[in-house]
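B., you asked whether I could sanity-check this one before it goes into the benchmark set. Here's the sequence:
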Amino acid sequence: MSNQKATLVVILIGLFYGSTLVASRFGLRQFNPVPYTALRLLLASSAYLVILTLTRRRLPRVPAFWLWSILVGLTTVVLPMLCNTTSLLYQSSGVTGLLLTLTPVITVCMAQIFLPGEPFTLQKISGALVAFTGAALLLASGETGIAELARASWQGYILVFIALLANSSGFVIVRKRMSQADPITYTAISTFFATLVMVALAFLTTGFDFSRARTSGYAVVIYTSLIGTFSAQLLRNWLNSRTSAALASATELVVPVASVSLGALLLGEQVTWIMLIGMGLIMSGVLLLNQGAAVKSAAAKTSASS
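And here's what the prediction gave me:
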């Protein structure tokens, strides 16, 4: 895949996820996070079912494929969606988006252990330290991005970090085990499994109470299902299976820009200097990581051609 095409896909995915965070925070005014997430996944699964039917794809019979697809569903769909959505009860979509920018950093750290082709370099270490400094600044200042909350709840931060660890694990699984698999097929299976888990969880906990839901709330569910769950997830797994783990996770660079901007414009969320400084540090660190990966890739190509 060309760098230009990959960059366009990265930006598009980041915009999808960033706008989904903002829409979800609005949606939580009318829905509980658990049934809201389950409803999103039900609609997304329906979209995947249509795609599988129209393209006449045959489901693999290899047990290992199903096992890894289910693990991808748990790590990249169930935990991130539920944790990120619930975190919006405690902080703005902008703060959640900023913290999610750490995904490439954690992914690179995991790739160092589980992906032998992507080892640490001095530049990657420097990038990770810079990015974590930006995150530490946000945590130490207790930023919420919401005027009504003077001090952040640690619950919001913890939920996002659980999502980060899960998402990065999913990147590594896809890169290591699913790089040759059809992205549509395994993403569909992952989403079907995630739907079953979230529907069961909703029945066992909060139930499906939509008494507060209005037309605007259902519009949010449709948007976040088809854009943030179906389209973004499919594009991300497709990208992740065809490029490096660090580059694929760079979609998170676009997420904070979209979520901070749209959150301030549409929901009146606060944008403070601390948030901007933290965003600058995190994004600078991620850029260092990706530059390190690009230099290594170029050097490998030069060595192979000589």
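One thing to flag: The CA atoms of residues 34 and 202 lie 6 Å apart. Otherwise nothing jumped out at me.
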